[in-house]
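Ligand-bound model needed. guanosine-5'-diphosphate.
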Amino acid sequence: MKIHEYQAIELFRHAGIPVAGGQVAEDIDEAQDIVSTLGFPVVLKAQVLVGGRGKAGGVKLAKDKIELEKYFSEIKALRIKNYTVEKILIVKALDIEREFYVALTVDNVKDDVVLIASSAGGVDIEETAKKSPEKIHKIYMGGQKEVDPQQWPGFLRQVFPEPNLQAPAGAILQKLVQVFYKLDCSLAEINPLVMDKKGRWFAADAKINFDDNALFRQPEIQKLIDFNYEEPDELEAKQKGLSFVKMEGNVGCIVNGAGLAMATMDVIKLFGGEPANFLDVGGSSNPEKVLNALKIILKNKNVTSILINIFGGITRCDDIAKGILEARQQIKISVPLVIRLTGTNEKEAKELLSGANLRMFATMREAIQEAVALASKI
Ligand code: GDP
Ligand code: MN
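Prediction:
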């Protein structure tokens, strides 16, 4: 889950990371109120949850009332990667002397959290990584929640060569590390971390992403969700205890277990089809879950066949079968269903479904071939 800059700034402020004063405005009157306390110059910043905001014209410095009005309406009218700008953050402009990049993120290849910093801040970090990789410095956390004290002084010296910068910058970095672990982040980034002309430090931009799997223990973070950026069907699925990810294809999938669900999507592609979704009904699936899964999949108008692939372990095939029958009574299933049920209570399931005139297959291969063939017929 992602949050907006103005929300991330509040979390940083709370953690003791210095940020420039400011507030969000939805209209020009609010903007003028904010500026009347801040004073000019101010920076206007579009609040959108996609990258490339600055380049898209979403960050502007306003020196006076005329510029404020002009830039406010210009930014409000922007569409950044197809998202409208609902809120604009207005902050006191900083008199920037130096800009740095600092972040913590998860390195999925090394299976570790990495602290990244660079003296080349303010610019696109991917560009720096390509053009001047020597300017990017990293410390791997090695499973610890504190930076290795052995590596720390050397790291600070590399990023902040002037000794007088190391203590204030180091203190901010330590706080960023604390925020990252305390809030279960997957990314906590300050770009740029600014030192102004008077030697004061500020996080001039703030980006935080959270680990979705840890959100259950971060109730305060859950409240920050912006529903404009969430797939409504995925939210509904989550509320109903289903793991669901919408995709581009036309073969709807209902599977038990994440591993089998992934394998099912692979085999669909192997046979020339395209999955419409990932869906794991979970281990102890009750009939209700199958009904809910079918309802969610049928909302997707691209779906032209639905494959139910169950390998019953903890999941009982007869529960799944009951769910299918229940769904056929309650909703109109307008596309062909292809079913493969095997494992626990398979016999009971087949008895339940016999006479229901359903396409049943014994193996995953046959079922998927059929589902792919039916999907492309329409
Ligand atoms: P991003 O492009 O979406 O990452 O937006 P940022 O908030 O990082 O702003 C982009 C750039 O605008 C920064 O790297 C700075 O160079 C500049 N900028 C942002 N805030 C200020 C400010 O208060 N004063 C000045 N002079 N420049 C700023
Ligand atoms: Mn930035």
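The two ends are 36 Å apart (CA to CA).
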